[in-house]
Amino acid sequence: MKRFLTFEKRSAGTSAGVFVMRVLAIAFAVLITALLLLAVGKTPAKTGSILYCLFIQPFFSDYGIADTFKSAIPLIILSIGVGLAFKVKLWNIGAEGQMAVGAMAAAAIPIYFPNMSGVPMILLMATVSIVAGMVWGAIAGIPKAYLGANETITTLMLNYVALKLVQALVLGPWRDPNGKGFPVAPLLPKQGWLATFGSSGIHLGILLALALVVIYWFVMSRNRWGYEIRVTGESAKAAQYAGINVKRNMVLVLLISGAICGLGGMVELTGRAHRLDANLTNGMGFTAVIIAWLSKLNPFGIVVMSLFMAGLTNGGGYAQTEGIPGAIATMIQGILLFSVLGFDILTRYKIYIGGKVIDLEAMGISVKQGVSKLFKGGKKHGS
Amino acid sequence: MKKILSVLLCVALLASFGLTMSGCQSDSPKNFKVGFIYVGPVGDEGFTYMHDLARQAVEKELGITTYYVESVPEGAECATQIENLVKKGCKLIFTTSYGFMDYTVEMAEKYPDVNFMHFSGYKTAANLGTYMGRMYQARYLAGIAAGKATKTNKIGYTAAMPIPETVRGIDAFTLGVRSVNPEATVNVVWTNTWVDAAIEKQGTESLLAAGCDVVAQHQDSAAGVIAAEAAGAYSTGYHSSMIAKAPKGYLTSPIWNFTDYYRTVIKDAMEGKFSNERVWYGLDNGLVLLDQFGPSVTDETKTLISEKEALIKSGDWDVFTGPIKDQDGNVKIAEGQKMTDDEMENMMWFVEGVVGSVEAK
């Protein structure tokens, strides 16, 4: 008997297909959001304003785009960090904690060596943040490789350990002596701040983030070790037969993953926050997990998704000034994520409803062709 | 068929973006625009709620336009929301949590034409002032109610973080308690969180289990008050009236009323008289006050409280006037001596009668 609704797995989606699906997913979410806002009694003009704040302002207004970049920098770095681990099917969801210990280690430098000059101070801060992130990665990685300890649990729990550690330090020995007793470390000395591009506030961390993206791409597609860990990720047994040292690679990947996230903490500290407190990480480590996942671990996808998530978060705040509650703004972000995930299924499955095939990916591709034809046609017309 | 569908999808897509382009341009320059950055949701029934009640009242009264952004995390992200309020045309912006300080300073530097007021901080600029309430005065009065209510002479106190603001509050409360009941102790549990109903409830229950029959709090939710009511104990809340949560055991609460303050600052700013002073208003200005009393509070207690309230309001006496001893019995403030504001802002020691440590556990 034929079922009414069947899913048929298809060959892996093409990158054009994925791209079109993302665009369709966003358009769909915008549509749902618009209907929702109209349904709760917002006028069409108001609905337009809210949608503008959510989806346009963060990306196309001058200060909006600068802020989106600023927020995206740590997200890119952390997503590259966790993305590397995910490639090997190591579920490092400890970016939050690794970022926190990285920021913490970096913050120690100006506290104990306040008279260092700028460049050595920043280099030393970067180094210790990498080491701290590595240590945090190793605490999860070594038991995973040699004892089979579930790294999802260990990396998750280590987040809380790291955040409590930061809290204890800013409540205790690192508390700002001139801060009227509030639980924050002293402001970094100015020489420890990353330089910014003009008045935009976008700091040098962007170059580091993009360098990491390129390195990640190179390792994953052009490098022997990258190949090894990809094989390890596909099948640890096969990798072992091929003479790959699986355990060593597991530890190594979690070390490097932790190191990158630790460096992310230093970048956020020196580039934007300028002082250590328990709120520095602010859930970015978890957002990075979503980003890595939505971008399918593609390095350039990570950049796009990081910008998108950063803009969406800022846009949620902007939209509030048009009269929607904060919770609704968060809900709209949720609709978007669900929509993206939902459309994702369509790139991986053909769907039969009542015997009729719905192949949205193919349709997506034809939409894309249609659009490009439209543009070509337009050009001809104009010339 | 496929083609028609794809064309339709294209149209829907373009239409949705076209719709979005039309917004965000409603400008009415006649109105004076004021922005608020809140750390919590306006529906928290506590701290942010009190700010928002005042915002609504003043907006209605003065006919100005206000914007707010709620649940803004303390950290770098708040700068983008402050900047957005500036771009919306706000000429005065209130940032209502300590963690917004550095970013408010940054924005005040970047936008010298806009005035800023930061709650609870200490950094000022030509266009940036600070405001805070002498909540310790209201806590002292709440302490009198607690000291009169306890039978076991053990009073519990759940507090967020060991910082001067909370320590000062616990001390003032304890002085209030011991002014009417020198035998009573105030037992402190640190929760290490400003708001987390589950942890606040746990903390309160542990205090009740240890024999406390009155509980006080420096927390944002009503969880402690509700837990006390369930156990048949007395309680005092914080921020806003919590009497509805505990109709039997509620004594009173030290609470906020920002309306008068916001009205004054906004009016001044409208007339170009913005002042960047550091405001620390007490009971006399009405920024902090004591809530209505619960049914168990006796007339005798009410009289005691109103006498002390009048004394504090008169300015002749304040809570931290000597002699005051610390936990070890050493005289910290001599007879007739008064703590300065700076000393109070940095206060990190407990007075005699507090059981607990200023170190977080």
Write a structural description:
The complex is a heterodimer of chains A (383) and B (361). By secondary structure, chain A is mostly helical. Chain A has 2 domains: 5-10 and 350-378; 68-311, ABC transporter involved in vitamin B12 uptake, BtuC, CATH 1.10.3470. Chain A has helices spanning 15-39, 44-60, 62-87, 95-112, 118-147, 151-171, 205-222, 224-234, 236-241, 246-273, 284-294, 299-320, 326-348, 360-382, and strands at 5-9, 349-353, 356-358. Chain A has a 3-stranded antiparallel sheet. In chain A, helix 4 (95-112) packs parallel to helix 6 and helix 11 crosses helix 12. Chain A is globular, with a radius of gyration of 23 Å. The relative contact order of chain A is 0.19. Mean pLDDT of chain A is 89; it is low at 378-383. With 361 residues, chain B is an alpha/beta fold. In chain B, 40% of the residues lie in helices and 18% in strands. Chain B has 11 helices and 16 strands. Chain B has helices spanning 2-21, 47-62, 77-87, 101-110, 135-149, 164-180, 197-209, 223-230, 259-270, 299-314, 341-345, and strands spanning 33-37, 65-69, 92-95, 115-119, 128-133, 154-159, 185-190, 214-218, 234-236, 250-252, 254-256, 278-281, 288-290, 324-325, 331-333, 354-355. Chain B has a 6-stranded parallel sheet with strand order 2-1-3-4-5-12, with helices on both faces. Chain B has a 6-stranded parallel sheet with strand order 10-9-8-6-7-16, with helices on both faces. In chain B, strands 11-13 form a two-stranded antiparallel ribbon. In chain B, helix 5 runs parallel beside helix 6 (164-180), helix 5 (135-149) runs antiparallel to helix 10 and helix 7 runs parallel beside helix 8. Residues 16-29 of chain B have low confidence and may be disordered. Classes of the chains: A mainly alpha (383), B alpha/beta (361). At the A-B interface, helix 1, helix 2, helix 3, helix 6 and helix 10 of A face helix 1, strand 2, helix 3 and helix 6 of B.
